[in-house]
Amino acid sequence: MPEGPQARRMANIITKFCNKDICQISHLSNKTTWDIDIPAKITSVCVHGKNIFIHLNNGKIIYNHMLMWGWWFPTLEPKTKKRLNTAFLFADGTSLGYFGGGIIKPIDQKQLFEIKDKLGPDIIDSPNAEIAFKKLSKSNLAVGPGLLEQSLIAGVGNIYKNEALFVAKINPTQIANTLTSNQYQKLFNFLQPQMKADIYRSGKINTISKQAAKNGHYNFVYKRLGQNCLFCNSKIQRIYQGSSKQRSTYFCPLCQRL
Length: 258
What we know:
CATH topology of the largest domain: Helicase, Ruva Protein, domain 3
CATH architecture of the largest domain: Orthogonal Bundle
Number of domains: 2
Number of strands: 10
Low-confidence stretches: none
CATH class of the largest domain: Mainly Alpha
Strand order of the largest sheet: 5-7-6-1-2-3-4-8
């Protein structure tokens, strides 16, 4: 599932097409027609959390949230099984394609502000832990599902949640507003450097080390149910959290004691 760093990686691909003349936009996923005057140019691409905002020179904005399925490619014929969703053709003969599902649609400035207003601070852009977690730290949610609540903090996905809580030695069931400033600082110290680095790294999200990856270990706890903790040898456990109990949380019962 694309998370904050992956959204920024996609934005970097889109940015390479800035200031080129768009001669055609074909939205293929449904029969809706986009109200965008062509020709147009991409002037800038912004990201907040997992949300991508593509600004055009005619004042329109294309909003994209990849959800679990979307991906951008600088071609209409990539090596992927995903179906072409939206094609951008440029006057110089180049093309940009959005493949898979998710949300992609034109919006105006008012809708842009409405979307951003519902989002918490972006973990990657936040200057410090206090600002990054200013909403989450007031929440009565358990910190596990709280880290995934985009209205409280934007950009963190399930892999980063699991790994950050392990590194910070925080039990995922602890209530967010009971965490200390030191605990939030530990989360910040892991999440921001890891997520910033992952903007420029493709493939599996590796939260340990290159050497550990060679031994088949990419993460401390994520999807390691029943395996030994790399620190204490306790068996990694899994619980389901969130309002629908659908998000898996992996943790070490010894290293992350409540």
